[in-house]
Design a protein that fits this description.
By secondary structure, the chain is an alpha/beta fold. The protein is built from 6 helices and 11 strands. The chain has helices at about 40-50, 85-95, 100-110, 125-135, 155-170, 180-185; strands spanning about 5-10, 15-25, 30-35, 55-60, 70, 145, 175-180, 190-195, 200-205, 210, 215. The strands form 3 sheets. The protein has a 6-stranded mixed β-sheet, with helices on both faces. Helix 2 crosses helix 3 and helix 4 (about 125-135) runs parallel beside helix 5. It is globular, with a radius of gyration of 17 Å.
Amino acid sequence: MVLTLDRVAKFYGDKPVLREVSLSLAAGQVLLVAGENGAGKSTLLKVMAGLSRPSAGTVRQGVDQARVAYLGHATFLYPRLTALENLRFWARIYGVPGDEAALSAALERVGLAAAGHEEAGTFSRGMAQRLSLARVFLTAPQLVFLDEPGTGLDVRSRDVLRAEIAAARQRGAALVWVSHALAEDLPAADLVLLLEKGRAAYLGPAAGFAAPGGPA
């Protein structure tokens, strides 16, 4: 398994945010995480990614940490650097090919080929999110965490997002995807985890889940 959670709980002081969440995710699977605001979705994603320690239970990643990628609400882009310079910076950190051809190909995949020499600080929200997607998938990660990546995106950018997710899945990556547009994103998922007050109200096949209310 690429990711395994065993009775994971998270408390902030005396406040329980997650309660005994257990699941397993295999290579090539997409897990869609759903729930109302405050249900614990973002907290769970950070715990899964190793960015926050669980208060109880265990999280096991079956891949090297260098092959794990996370996209949160912040884009982690440098506004004074161009799109190409941003990708070159991340390529150096992760030790992946950072030549002009490789980086230009990454921009082409997210529809930013013509904006490679523009500063990221001038980008619209959709363009910045697409550049961040290029950053995330540049390393061909085996385990990907996406926290509401479609927020604020236009139709074209959402199409790019789903294409990148499909390509990562096809090459065997496992993805955990917190969605704010469940009905639209459900067809791209294998599994759904519905959180209610930090607990798993539903965990099972996407085909057995009826958006937005719950299990069919």
